[in-house]
Write a structure and sequence with these properties.
Radius of gyration: 18 Å
Largest sheet: 7 strands, mixed
Number of helices: 9
CATH class of one domain: Alpha Beta
Strand order of the largest sheet: 3-2-1-4-5-7-6
Structural class: alpha/beta
Distance between the termini: 30 Å
Helix content: 25-40%
Strand content: 15-25%
CATH superfamily of one domain: Vaccinia Virus protein VP39
Shape: globular
Oligomer: single chain
């Protein structure tokens, strides 16, 4: 995973507060029938991990950032949490039924990560990818993307051999959010993290101004933030 991917560690608690969960129907679609041993790859602070653990699955979290691992262990003390990357997984061969990667596959080197994930999967095992993308068809959401210099874009989800063809599916949903959580969401973006203190404060002030003046937001304590959750899944051949 790239150095930029590991920049989230110093703001792990902000990331935990600001980032949304994933819609249950998207998680349903990603998980293979009968799978019990799940690896959450690039687990961050455990946004997806807790949803998997809540289903009674045997989940192992893998995360390169020490700060993120510390926050994940704080909120999910019963889940094994390992230091590792998609390119170097600290797991035995054929030890997982599925590897899910939430909000992180665009940080990896697919040429190294795909065979490494295939190594730890059982025959017929699944690699599933998921991203929450802000739905910028909504005017204020598009303006938010301009403020944080991060317009949303669909992510590359072709995996290649040894996996079979990737299936994709999108899930539209809405996350109710207030100003504090919106500021946490913005502050947890890699672009904003890497700004100096003055520029970061200026970005957050622009977000406050947007919520105070945009006709869809002004005067409201909370507001619906629309998302499109992009998913992809591909399975190894059965032997």
């Amino acid at each position: 995973m790239s150095d930029r991917a590991t920049s989230f560690g110093p703001v792990a608690t902000v990331y935990e507060r600001g980032r949304p969960p994933y819609p249950a129907e998207a998680v349903d679609w990603l998980l293979p029938v009968g799978a019990t041993r799940i690896v959450d790859l690039g687990a961050g602070t455990g946004k997806l991990t807790r949803q998997l653990a809540g289903r009674g699955l045997d989940v192992t979290a893998v995360e390169p950032s020490a700060g993120m691992r510390a926050e994940l262990s704080r909120v999910l003390p019963g889940v094994p949490t390992l230091a590792g990357t998609a390119e170097d997984l600290p797991l035995p061969d054929h030890s997982a039924d599925a590897v899910l990667c939430a909000q992180a596959w665009h940080w990896v080197d697919p040429g190294r990560a795909v065979p490494e994930v295939a190594r730890v999967l059982s025959p017929g095992g699944r690699l599933g990818l998921i991203w929450n993308l802000r739905d910028e068809r909504e005017d204020w959401v598009r303006r938010l993307g301009e403020i944080i210099n991060s317009p949303e874009q669909y992510r590359q989800s072709e995996l290649g051999t040894p996996f079979g063809p990737a299936e994709t599916r999108d899930f539209g949903w809405t996350h109710q959010i207030g100003l504090d959580r919106l500021l946490d969401l913005v502050a947890s973006r890699s672009y904003v993290i890497l700004l100096d203190a003055a520029d970061r404060a200026a970005v957050l002030d622009r977000v406050r101004h947007l919520t105070a003046t945009h006709p869809d937001l002004a005067g409201r304590d909370t507001f619906p933030l629309p998302y499109i959750t992009q998913c992809a899944r591909a399975d190894l051949p059965q032997r």
